Amino acid sequence: METxxxxxxxxxxxxxxxxxxxxxxxxxxxxxxxxxxFVGLAWPWAADRSRAQIADWLSRPDLMRDTSVLLCLDVAVxxxxxxxxxxxxxxxKVKKSTLxxxxxxxxxxxxxxxxxxxxxxxxxxxxxxxCEFSTVAWxxxxxxxxxxPALSLGMRWLVPExxxxxxxxxxxxxxxxxxxxxxxxNGTTAVAGVESVEWLPLAGVLLIVAxxxxxxxxxxxxxxxxx
Length: 227
Prior knowledge:
By secondary structure, this protein is mainly α. The protein contains 10 helices and no strands. It folds into 2 domains: 2-185, no CATH class; 199-227. It has helices at residues 2-20, 25-41, 43-47, 51-58, 61-89, 96-106, 112-127, 133-158, 162-185, 199-226. Helix 2 packs antiparallel against helix 8.
């Protein structure tokens, strides 16, 4: 489960950088400063946490469900931004309200990226025992302030076409939504597995599939004969 959470955080960070790569350099710097301030000011809460407590959070299904809902809402906002941006770049006529919503969504960096930054802060604090928590936090904040605009520009250089960036971001958010559902399950199963095979229902399903395939074949032959 911890591996799935790490993969999910990497995907969230990648989607965040892809969206930021579509913005202006000044916006990249501003978002980097906001992220750095969050990391630097959140160290008192991060210092009160431990790896065991975070592992306990990840094992609680109710908390994971709440996080999954927040993540899916964030994904929906990002996908709406991709659709609006693609519509505007295609030259299609849009309403003023749609244009205003697009400008608002363009400035929205996402909420789940702050969860990723908080996780990084906790990991950094407990990776350097003996150092002051505030010192570690502000060093990490300085790294974040430089890394966010630098990685965003690197993402723009790696994927120069904005249409391709939007497409990748849309597909990435779909995968994030699916992975969020998987992490919510947390290793539990809704229905217990059975060892025996129900041959009669299996034969019925295969018969239905075969009948559908045969009907499709006949319809195709009939259409070809008409042409």
